[in-house]
Amino acid sequence: MLTVDKVQVCYGKSPAVQDVSLRVAPGETVLLLGRNGAGKSTLLKSIMGLEPPCSGRIIFQDRPITGSSPCKIARQGICYIPEDRQVFSNLSVLENLEMGMLAHKKKLNRHESLERVFEYFPRLKERLGQQAGSLSGGEQQMLAIARGLVSKPQLMLVDEPTEGLMPILVDETAGILRRLRQDGVTILLVEQNYSMAMSLGEDLSVYFMEKGRILKHGDVKEFQAGFDDPDHWMKM
Ligand code: ATP
């Protein structure tokens, strides 16, 4: 579904992503791990068209999207859930979800799309009229994922959804990601919470980034075998 081929992304003259290649197959959840500053968010942004690569190719569903605008990429079926959530604080929960629906290239059935999302996030249904900015951090995170999901994306790019969440909400987020996976939603997930990431399934494909490059690639099992104390290692 997604092929990233030898991509390089620079901020000015400094390369933040170098020679990165990865693949995401339909229905797969792929993990992108690495420490702070490794280049994970930059890679997601480059796929979404927010930081276009200076070299390399990005192919989505057999079409090149390298250098396309974020709007065009969203209409092709990719949604991006940024690290810092970025919900529309002054809009209600419902209005945020309606904004998400605009990203789909066809007019979506409003009722059907919302009900599908409420199956994953029942709490949002109880708060439809509430201003998004007044939700708790965890609820805002759920809203950010829901706003992406409501657009019926072919591929979700999810950047550190558990950052700053209490352990109970980390577990809840992991549960939602597992469920999305079971339901065949394709996800490229950036995480720094190694334990949570590893709990998503043993057969998940994992890429580990360091200093802008892919240092390791394997499945969760192979990956775990390579680390004595992964939690410690990730935080170094
Ligand atoms: P984190 O988890 O902390 O977000 P990351 O792995 O996602 O880390 P990036 O945010 O992609 O890493 O950053 C990769 C490198 O690019 C870092 O050295 C960072 O300082 C730099 N960088 C990121 N955004 C910008 C920017 N807008 N302008 C200049 N340099 C940037």
List strands and helices in order, with pairings:
Layout lengths: L1 E10 L2 E11 L4 E6 L5 H9 L6 E6 L2 E2 L5 H6 L2 E4 L11 H9 L8 H11 L1 H5 L10 H13 L5 E5 L7 H16 L3 E6 L2 H5 L6 E6 L2 E7 H6 L4 H6 L1
Parallel strand pairs: 3-8, 3-9, 6-7, 7-8
Antiparallel strand pairs: 1-2, 1-4, 4-5, 9-10
Helix pairs in contact: 3-6
InterPro entries: AAA+_ATPase, ABC_transporter-like_ATP-bd, ABC_transporter-like_CS, BCAA_Transport_ATP-bd_LivF, P-loop_NTPase
Keywords: Amino-acid transport, ATP-binding, Nucleotide-binding, Transport
Protein name: ABC transporter related
Question: Would you give an account of this structure?
Answer:
By secondary structure, the chain is an alpha/beta fold. It folds into two domains: 2-77 and 154-235, P-loop containing nucleotide triphosphate hydrolases (Rossmann fold, 3-Layer(aba) Sandwich), CATH 3.40.50; 87-152, no CATH class. It is 36% helix and 27% strand. It contains ten helices and ten strands. It has helices at residues 40-48, 70-75, 93-101, 110-120, 122-126, 137-149, 167-182, 194-198, 220-225, 230-235; strands at 2-11, 14-24, 29-34, 55-60, 63-64, 78-81, 155-159, 186-191, 205-210, 213-219. Strands 6-7-8-3-9-10 form a six-stranded mixed β-sheet, sandwiched between helices. A hairpin with a 2-residue loop joins strand 4 and strand 5. The radius of gyration is 17 Å and the shape is globular. The chain starts with a strand and ends with a helix. The mean pLDDT is 90. Adenosine-5'-triphosphate binds at residues 11, 16, 34, 36-42, 83, 192. InterPro entries: AAA+_ATPase, ABC_transporter-like_ATP-bd, ABC_transporter-like_CS, BCAA_Transport_ATP-bd_LivF, P-loop_NTPase. It comes from Desulfatibacillum aliphaticivorans. This is ABC transporter related.
